[in-house]
Amino acid sequence: MITNKEKNFISAVVYLHNDGERAVAFFEKLNGVLADNFDQYELVAVDDACTDSTVSDLRRWAAGLEKPLTVLHMSLHQGLEPAMNAGLDAAIGDYVYEFDSTQTPYPIEFVMQAYREAMGGSDIVSVCPRTTQGSSRLFYRIFNANSRSLYRLRTDAFRLVSRRAVNRVHASSDNLPYRKAAYAASGLRMTDLEFDGRLTDRSTGRFALAMDSLALYTDAGYKFSAGIAIAMMFLALAELAYTLLIFCTGHPIEGWTTMMFVLTLGFAGLFAVLTIVIKYLSLLVDLIFKKQKYLIESIEKIQK
Fold first, then answer.
1. Domain membership flag for residue 198
2. Whole-number Å distance between alpha carbons of 95 and 115
3. Is 3 part of a structural domain of the chain?
4. Would the pTM of this model clear 0.85, i.e. be above it?
5. How many domains does the chain have?
6. What is the 3-state secondary structure (H, E, C) of 152-173?
7. Are residues 140 and 152 in the same domain?
8. How far is Cα 180 from Cα 156, in angstroms, rounded to an integer?
């Protein structure tokens, strides 16, 4: 037992969706680390419409806790990002742990390693596996290549963020469509800690989240459309040269030359206009920002 405990108030927000017995085992480990190292902390469980015994098991376990367990019951299953936004809004700590899963492929000691790294000046500390899935590596490669952030995103098991980081990203938007990217774009210092292992949970809806993230936090869409426009422009020039060649050799098909000329230039112009439209739409998205609402059914506090 540590006698000189840390004085910062710590919040731990945990996402739950049909985690079963694993939820209690996770909270036991987490609560043990926090109780041993911090004078003040809170546990926040986000119940994203669990249909199994996850919540009832947690109630029985939390009935003997000295510190309260806050359970946010979402009105319906809304997915990871909206549910965790709700949890972040409920958390009051100086530093907030964000656990997107109760899976623990990392040694539990990394909870305090992340905190010590934060005390060294990092506002966002991510604990990341050394090994990741191929689809994740592809997404982050595309994202990082088109992002203007100084920091590179990668797969992480959990993260610790300061209250300053939470306040800064919420100042840019009421809700965070993709928290990880918002933190990377905040300009605050980020640090990655690595562990040997990999995540095996596969959350649903990740493809839609990936597409939204690329649109909101990168210029990948603009570059893609600009590339198509440039390719179409070269194709139009090639077709125009071929049309003029046919015309000059004296074997034109009546009406064909004019039609090809109009079509090629027309398609080039169309893609150029679409590129401009997509660019302005991306700017509007940046200014207005996509808001993801969440619905909370009730808030429950459990303790001894």
1. yes
2. 9
3. no
4. no
5. 2
6. CCCCCCEEEEEHHHHHHHHHHC
7. yes
8. 9
**Pair (210, 171) in one structural domain:** yes
Domain carrying residue 253 = 220-288
Do 149 and 279 fall within a single domain? Answer: no
In this structure, how many other beta carbons lie within 10 angstroms of the beta carbon of residue 166?
25
Burial class (CB in 10 A: 0-12, 13-18, 19+), 72: buried
pLDDT of the residue at 267: 72
Indicate whether 227 belongs to any domain.
yes
Please, are residues 94 and 162 in contact by the beta-carbon 8 Å criterion?
yes
Share of the chain above pLDDT 90, in %: 44
Query: Are residues 97 and 136 located together in one domain of the fold?
Result: yes
Kindly write down the DSSP assignment for every residue of 3-28, as one continuous string: SS-B-S-EEEEEEESS-THHHHHHHH
Assigned token pair, 80: 């990871």
- In sequence order, which ranges of 147-255 are alpha helices (DSSP H)? 163-172, 179-184, 206-217, 220-248
pLDDT of residue 187: 87
Q: Give per-residue burial for 84-108: e unless 16+ CB within 10 Å, then b.
A: bbbbbbbbebebbbbbbbbebebee
Residue 87's closest CA among 16, 150, 30? 16
Q: What is the CATH number of the domain that holds 189?
A: 3.90.550.10
Same domain, 174 and 116: yes
Provide the pLDDT confidence category of residue 229 given band limits of 50, 70 and 90: confident
Are 163 and 233 within one domain?
Answer: no
Cα–Cα distance measured from residue 215 to residue 143, given in angstroms and rounded to the nearest whole number: 10
Any bridge partners for residue 14, and if so which?
45, 99
CB 124 within 8 A of CB 132: no
The CB density around residue 134, as the number of other CB atoms within 10 Å, is 7
What pLDDT shows up at residue 150? 79
Do 48 and 190 lie in one domain? The reply is: yes
The answer to whether position 119 is within a domain reads yes
